[in-house]
Amino acid sequence: MKIVSRNEDLLRDALSCIPQPSSRTSLASCNKLIRFEDISAAAFKIQSGVQKTPCMYSRLSKQYGMDIYLKKEFLQYTGSVKERGVLYLLMSLPQDQQRKGVIVASDSNFSMAVAYHASELRIPVFVIVSTSTAPARVKMCREYGAMVISYGTTAKDSQVHARRLAQENGYLYLEEEDSAVYLSGLGTVGLEMYEQVPKLDAVIFPAGGHCGLLAGSAAALKHLNPHISIIGVESESFPVLQQSLKAGHPTEDQACNNHHFYGDVSGVCFGSNSLQLTGKLVDKVVAVREEDILISMLRLLEYERATVDAEGAIGLAALVAGKLPELKGKRVAVVICSGNLELHLLQQCIARALTLDNRVCRFSLVISDCPGDMSKLLEILAREEARVLDIKQERTFVTSELFTVEVICTVETRDKIHTAQLRNALLERYPTTAWTER
After folding, report:
1. Distance between CA atoms of 76 and 109, rounded to whole angstroms?
2. 201: closest CA among 176, 162, 231, 223?
3. In the chain, which end has fewer C-beta atoms inside a 10 angstrom radius, N or C?
4. Which contiguous run of DSSP H or E holds residue 55?
5. Which residues contact 23 (CB under 8 A, 6 or more apart)?
């Protein structure tokens, strides 16, 4: 059944974007706005190669006063929505290029998706990474079936080496860009969500520099229902998309942080096609703080048992931060697009999020160094139902009276209200109690 939309003119062709056999060293971004038919064709072609991920009602709905549905794209085999665009891209390559192989140069979600799906399609695949790449990522790419080569100390070194190998051996050098084929593959998320959740009022996507998911899915959703509100969310630290939309062309934010925590959220705006679609079809772009992203990660872990990274959590962060009050009482879908967070970062993020959420706090107070005084303090903590995580006693460098001890205590509480109750109880008994501000 063909669906006709008033937005058809916004998705018209400018020129063909089928990769040509002569394209040896790179797959150039094509100047084309995708059509709904392109996305439908992509959905049909990749249906057996990617997961149709659930879009489930969330227990967070009551907390934020709206019906929240989470599209769990982190359940893809490589933990990222990028698989959709990558698989369609690889399947669209000419057969002679598939025989020669492809090469990528990064440790991103895009590269891991290329490593896996190229191997599944029996396309020779090479991944060039810098020597600073996390060993876990190198191991994962090898397990997916790619030939992984470490070269250079920076990402730029590995990219130069990959391009040289591509030119010398006839490989196709792939990098994440906004070709119509890639955007069509990503746009299949929008098709699935429209089918899975009837009567949607709004859909929230991660944005940032790599806004292909936002642009492609917006094309699908606006075609099916122009009244659905499409919202993009990026980081306040590097609002690349907002700057690019204001300037009217892709821009690079000099403040972009390449820390692995942010992933593609902090990337530069990589193409005019995504920017054009975003400008025409996206209703709103908002920015959130790093603190909001961390608390969003905590909420997803607690309520959904979902371990996600910053890119996966940033959509929900807009609701956590109260940036979208107009959605109260509405049916809202949030795309959780990625779950590839390194274990050491996960530990740091959760610890920091608990502090930001007023669930872990630290205080210090001075008590008499006499038998029984420490037990009285512990009795108060037990009565207030605070869980002691760490307790230290300082006797040598205490500036108060002789024969006193400074106690530094870290405790876990239920929430902000519980923390306030504990604070009042301690101040009543120990007026000089000092709280460590987060």
Report:
1. 11
2. 231
3. N
4. strand 55-57
5. 97, 172
Q: Coil, strand, or helix at residue 205?
A: strand
Q: Which domains does the chain have, with CATH numbers?
A: 36-80+180-251+258-353 (3.40.50.1100), 82-174 (3.40.50.1100), 359-436 (3.30.70.260)
**Tens-place pLDDT, residues 239-259:** 888 888 888 888 775 555 556
d(CA 130, CA 354): 33
353 vs 260: CA distance, rounded Å = 17
| Separation CA 75–CA 13 (nearest Å) | 33
Percent of the chain with pLDDT over 90: 73
- Taking only the tens place, the pLDDT of each residue in 179-230 is 999 999 999 999 999 999 999 999 999 997 678 999 999 999 999 999 999 9
pTM of the model: 0.87
Length of the chain: 438
User: Percentage of the chain with pLDDT > 70?
Assistant: 88
CA 166/CA 7 separation, integer angstroms? 40
pLDDT score of 270: 64
